[in-house]
Design goal:
The complex is a heterodimer of chains A (about 400) and B (about 700).
Chain A lengths: L1 E8 L5 H10 L4 E4 L16 E2 L6 H21 L10 E5 L2 H16 L5 E3 L1 H7 L10 E5 L3 E2 L2 H14 L3 E3 L4 E5 L6 E5 L3 E9 L5 H7 L7 E12 L7 E4 L11 E8 L4 E8 L14 H12 L7 E12 L6 E5 L2 E8 L5 H16 L5 H9 L14
Parallel strand pairs in A: 1-2, 1-11, 2-8, 4-13, 11-18
Antiparallel strand pairs in A: 3-7, 4-6, 5-6, 9-10, 10-11, 12-15, 12-16, 13-14, 14-15, 17-18
Chain B lengths: L18 E6 L2 E6 L4 H7 L6 E2 L6 E2 L12 E4 L2 E4 L9 E4 L1 E2 L17 E10 L3 H12 L4 E4 L20 H4 L5 H13 L4 E4 L2 E6 L5 E5 L2 E12 L3 E3 L12 E3 H10 L7 E5 L3 H12 L3 E7 L8 H10 L3 E3 L1 E7 L6 E6 L12 E4 L2 E4 L3 E3 L2 H9 L2 E4 L9 H19 L8 H10 L18 E5 L9 H5 L5 E4 L6 E4 L8 H5 L5 E5 L8 E6 L11 E5 L5 E12 L7 E6 L2 H4 L4 E2 L24 E3 L4 E2 H9 L5 H8 L11 H11 L19 E2 H5 L4
Parallel strand pairs in B: 1-7, 3-8, 9-10, 9-14, 10-11, 14-25, 16-23, 17-18, 17-23, 18-19
Antiparallel strand pairs in B: 1-2, 3-4, 5-6, 5-7, 12-13, 13-14, 15-24, 20-21, 21-22, 26-29, 27-28, 29-30, 30-33, 31-32, 31-34, 32-33, 35-36
Helix pairs in contact in B: 2-4, 2-9, 5-6, 6-7, 9-10
Classes of the chains: A alpha/beta (about 400), B alpha/beta (about 700).
């Protein structure tokens, strides 16, 4: 049996940057994934937006670290991962939304986030052509941005290989033996491995992996569909998040949707259905395009001529309250979970990777404890994330 | 005015059409009314439509089928695929350099619900298979929607000017493909239970059992009980230096330009691939008055029918077997092609390179089924059948027959009591799709009196109209009634029916009745825009193109029954009369080798794998050598397959790199196919036109 310091289950948004951080600390790391290459689960379904403008200490601190890693990657390591600091915006089309966003801004500013309120006129300058009717202005957080999930995870992956991380692809974890707390054994369909510590970064399969180790992890995947267009010259700046719910009997009701123009000039968009669809089915439905298109072209008429190139369906691994679940399990501190990313694993991943490496090496800082408090595995799940 | 139009054609009618003016980068030009933009530009001699934003390669025609976006232009401010959009009076068309600009729009976008439609059967593709199936469904009163992405039914039959192989009884052998297409289309258009949607592209079979279809620009959702995938095939592409130049494209695109739009896209053409598709494209080129410089086939012999190949050889086109393409040369557009001999492993033998001047390199190296609709339907849990090339690559005659079988199979799903499919049909279906057999030696007739046919048909292929058309029953099939070799017994009355029906143009008649020393040879000829007439002298050749002598033409004309095939009468000496099969029309000069050194800037070092994103073989090879054998990872890192065509072109080429790098089959992971089949403007999904 091959022995490692740490085994990570899942070569995705969280697992790969975590492997990099651990390998950089000279730990012997193995990553196991049932798919054929890094990021083939939900990572590649991410649209690529990266923001620190959340509403809680945990995600804000983690994302700030991620942004630092994403934004300096090219400078530090040389490869282009498509980072652009295009910012996020949440336009308001009602007094109620304006108030809600402005209230949230107060919280965000208290965490020293760079976020401001743009007047209607100021907003039209960065999103020229957006529907002006009832537009009241928008939040704008210029330090947020975007990068290619595909390029980023491969950059992290190849870098982690350089630092000695090992990967087993196309391998299905079958069982986890935690009877010896400091030597956890993992059996796959192709082999057996053991490690001092195991990290569950299995995304939408977090619950199943947890169960193998004897832990109940309340993560349930629900579906979201996304799409990408042809590339055109840049015609607007930030990620646009339309928070309004929409009733449409013809296409089914929907919650928020969002879109931005990436570094290639392609617009990527995604919508949240009102009635969540649970499960791991990733086959595209006929509902998505008419549902999102009606809303997007109403908000931004210029988009009518932009050609949709590809669509896909992925899942958000949802926790009960919309916040991640990260930390060592009380029943066995050598079994660590970093799960329930609720669709934000990509943007949280690099920051979490560093945090997890400090959990493993027992180098947690005071701030880390604050962050982990927010992500506590056994917290009370009654409060709900408002700003997903 | 427009210079690159086909002004005369032996088969296709040249219809005078009203002209409309349009602007190309502010220059006023003329197009035919309703002409597709790309063809209008080609007719005006414009073959470079701009340059790719990634690698600055020339944009222009590639698929001519709406599948890729290489032909993107800006039409009245909006980026469109030039091969799919018609020219409008005073349309302002501009080239695309780099990324296009998305135009501003006035006011609000139109919003309306998408129409949902239910049907028993949805047939995707109105080519030979889809039309044949439709006829069966209509006869049995099954409610069917037949969609086709072109504005004319018939699929690729529309482009086939030659007479078809197969059998008269099962697949209208001896009729021209285009006429079979019209005939089937007319029958389907009049059918009561089959609703025909033209200019309608299937975008995806969604998991909720609805098929997204862009019907003449309006998005619809169709819920069928059963789907028939008759969407045909796509052409495979090839990896070589200079493969992203303007002027390198598929045989299908070429046929579309020439035979559908009557545009002359080339003066001097070189063809890569000696299957039926490549050979026919060469024949169509000659019919359109385009020089065919040569044809290279990597295998030791052409894969297409021998009688097809012979047509080209006889007319004077050199065929280079065991030769492959080394490079297409030119800085933006093709100026010449370099080929070389290959060894038994298809590796280039250095020092055998030969370069020929040409402006176009046609790639005809095989087809692959458009299987995605079948896979999608299965995944959605919709019962699905496939027919024609979408099921298995074969001739159109086979597609018609197995389309008919698929139609009856579907009927039986609704009406279990309907007639059974005779067992013999399956045998026949297998015969119709059979590959050509080995070449056989045929005995030369010893007859030197009367009139009789000489059958220059040396290879078993599924084709028998000569035996069924002869009113005297003088021709029989030796062996299988469809694919045996035809033989002459006795009793020819000289009606010429066998000569004119033979799709291979491989039957001549020799008449000793008037002159025993210099009999008259009757030859079929259908390239007569190289006109030949009484009093001319022709360089006559045997079946392999060997010259037999220079003989006098006694006359040349099409008859009432010959269906536009001219019958040329030649007075030849009795020693060679029975060997003559045709005469040369193309001079050796066309195919002369170039000996000047190719300018350095004309040699492109890159073999491009993904034309959309400008990804080279080197980039992919390097990644494969780091252990990447998942195409999804290769796509993630290099963007190969992320472009508008959606790995329709590069997937095969990446597979070839895997093979070359000795990656085991079980380690290769193919791309996961996702919607949409072709790019569609977002506004189409927001406005159902209701």
């Amino acid at each position: 049996m091959k022995t490692f310091d740490v085994i990570i289950i899942g070569a995705g948004s969280v697992g790969v940057p975590t492997a990099l951080s651990l390998a950089q600390k000279k730990l012997k790391v193995l990553v196991i994934d049932s798919l054929a290459s890094p990021g083939q689960g939900q990572n590649k379904k991410a649209i690529g937006g990266i923001r620190a403008t959340h509403s809680d200490k945990g995600k804000i601190a983690t994302s700030l670290k991620s942004i630092e890693i994403f934004s300096t990657w090219k400078e530090v390591y040389g490869d282009d991962i498509g980072w652009i600091a295009n910012g996020y915006s949440f336009p308001a089309y009602s007094e109620k939304d304006e108030k809600m966003l402005k209230d949230l801004m107060k919280v965000q500013k208290s965490f020293n986030l760079n976020i401001k309120w743009l007047s209607k006129e100021e907003y039209l300058e960065i999103v020229p052509g957006i529907n002006q009717e009832n537009l009241r202005g928008s939040t704008y957080s210029p330090d947020d941005g975007s990068a290619s999930p595909l390029l980023a995870i491969n950059a992290f992956y190849f870098k982690s290989l350089e630092f000695g991380a090992q990967y087993k692809f196309n391998e299905q974890v079958l069982s986890i033996d935690t009877s010896k707390s400091d030597e956890i054994k993992i059996k796959t369909d192709k082999g057996e491995y053991s490690a001092n510590k195991v990290i569950n970064a299995a995304g939408i399969y977090a619950k199943e992996i947890g169960k193998m180790a004897g832990f109940d992890i309340p993560v349930i995947p629900d579906s979201h569909e996304g799409a990408i267009t042809e590339p055109v010259q840049r015609f607007f700046g930030p990620m646009v998040v339309d928070l309004r719910p929409c009733e449409d009997p013809a296409t089914e009701d929907s919650a928020n949707y969002y879109f931005y123009q990436n570094n290639e000039g392609q617009v990527i968009f995604c919508i949240t259905p009102k009635n969540l669809i649970y499960g791991t089915n990733s086959e595209s439905t006929s509902v998505f395009l008419p549902q999102v298109a009606k809303r997007m072209v109403s908000l931004f008429p210029k988009l009518v001529n932009l050609k949709v190139r590809r669509t896909w369906r992925g899942q958000y691994p949802m926790s009960p309250d919309g916040f991640p679940l990260v930390g060592a399990h009380k029943g066995n501190p050598n079994f660590i979970s970093a799960v329930g990313m609720c669709g934000q694993g990509y943007m949280l991943g690099p920051g979490l990777g560093e945090l997890l490496s400090r959990i493993v090496t027992e180098q947690l800082t005071a701030e880390d404890h604050d962050v982990l408090n927010n992500f506590d595995l056994e917290r009370d799940f009654s409060s709900v994330e408002k700003f997903k | 005015m427009t210079k690159n139009r086909i002004e005369q054609h032996p088969v296709l009618p040249i219809v005078g059409k009203e002209e409309v003016s349009f602007y190309w980068n502010k220059e006023k030009l003329f197009a035919k009314k309703d002409e597709i933009i790309s063809s209008a530009l080609f007719a005006n001699g414009i073959k470079v439509f701009g340059h790719n934003h990634k690698d600055d390669s020339a944009r222009g025609i590639f698929c001519a089928n709406g599948q890729c976006a290489k032909c993107t232009v800006i039409a009245n401010g909006i980026p469109v695929k030039a091969c799919m959009v018609e020219v409008q009076e005073n349309m302002f068309i501009e080239r695309v350099e780099g990324l296009p600009t998305l135009p501003d729009v006035e006011g609000q976008a139109q919003i309306s619900d998408i129409e949902n439609i239910e049907t028993d059967v949805l047939i995707i593709g109105g080519g030979p298979a889809g039309l044949s199936a439709s006829i069966q469904l209509n006869e049995n009163k099954i409610k069917t929607i037949l969609i086709d992405d072109k504005n004319k039914l018939g699929g690729k039959l529309v482009l086939q000017t030659h007479k078809f192989f197969g059998s008269v009884e099962d697949s209208y052998a001896g009729m021209r493909g285009m006429d079979i297409g019209s005939m089937l289309a007319d029958e389907v258009k009049q059918s009561e239970y089959v609703e025909v949607w033209r200019s309608s592209t299937a975008l995806y079979v969604f998991n909720d059992k609805k098929v997204g279809i862009l019907k003449d620009g309006v998005y619809k959702l169709v819920t069928p009980k059963i789907i028939l995938n008759a969407a045909g095939a796509r052409e495979k592409f090839l990896r070589f230096k200079g493969n992203s130049l303007s002027g390198v494209y598929g045989a299908g695109a070429f046929q579309t330009l020439v035979n559908r739009d009557l545009v002359k896209p080339s003066e001097n053409l070189f063809i890569i691939g000696g299957g039926n598709v490549g050979i026919i494209a060469g024949y169509h080129a000659l019919q359109a008055g385009i020089n065919v410089v040569g044809l290279a086939e990597a295998a030791p012999k052409c894969g297409g029918y021998k009688v097809h190949e012979d047509k080209l050889t006889r007319l004077g086109v050199p065929i280079y077997t065991s030769h492959s393409i080394v490079s297409a040369n030119g800085s933006d557009s093709v100026k010449s092609v370099t080929i070389a001999k290959v060894d038994e492993n298809f590796n280039i033998i250095e020092g055998t390179e030969k370069t020929y001047e040409c402006d176009t390199v046609l790639i005809a190296v095989g087809l692959e089924s458009v299987a995605e609709f079948t896979d999608e339907a299965k995944s959605a849990g919709i019962k699905v059948f496939a027919a024609g090339d979408a099921s298995e690559i074969a001739e159109a005659s086979s597609a018609m027959f197995n389309g008919k079988i698929a139609g009856i199979k579907i009927v039986k799903e609704f009406l279990p009591e309907a007639k059974e499919i005779p067992e013999a049909w399956y045998t026949k279906a297998d015969i119709l799709k059979s590959h050509p057999g080995e070449l056989q030696e045929i005995e030369t007739s010893t007859l030197e009196e009367g009139i009789f046919p000489v059958l220059h048909c040396k290879q078993e292929i599924p084709c028998n109209p000569c035996s069924t058309v002869c009113p005297e029953g003088a021709i029989f099939m030796d062996g299988d009634p469809i694919k045996g070799l035809p033989k002459y017994s006795k009793g020819c009355e000289g009606c010429l029916k066998c000569l004119t029906i033979c799709p291979g143009l491989a039957i001549t008649l020799v008449d000793f009745r008037k002159d025993k020393e210099n009999p008259t040879v009757f030859l079929p000829y259908e390239v007569y825009n190289y006109s030949i007439q009484k009093g001319d002298k022709a360089t006559c050749v045997d079946v392999d193109g060997n010259e037999l002598g220079f003989f006098e033409v006694l006359g040349a004309k099409a008859t009432k029954d010959s269906d536009r095939t001219q019958i040329v009468r030649i007075k030849a000496s009795k020693e060679v009369a029975k060997k003559i099969v045709g005469f040369k029309i193309q001079t050796k000069k066309v195919s002369e080798q170039l000996f000047e050194k190719i300018p350095h800037d004309h040699i492109q070092d890159n073999e491009v794998i993904c034309l959309c994103e400008g990804v080279t073989a080197g980039e992919i090879r390097e990644l494969v050598r780091t252990g990447a054998t998942d195409m999804n990872q290769i796509k993630a890192v290099t963007r190969a397959g992320m472009g508008p065509c959606g790995y329709k072109t590069c997937e095969n080429l990446i597979k070839q790199i895997f093979f070359a790098e000795k990656i085991a089959q079980e380690d290769m992971v193919l791309n996961i196919r996702r919607p949409l089949y072709v790019e569609v403007p977002l506004g189409k999904f927001a406005n159902g036109g209701q």
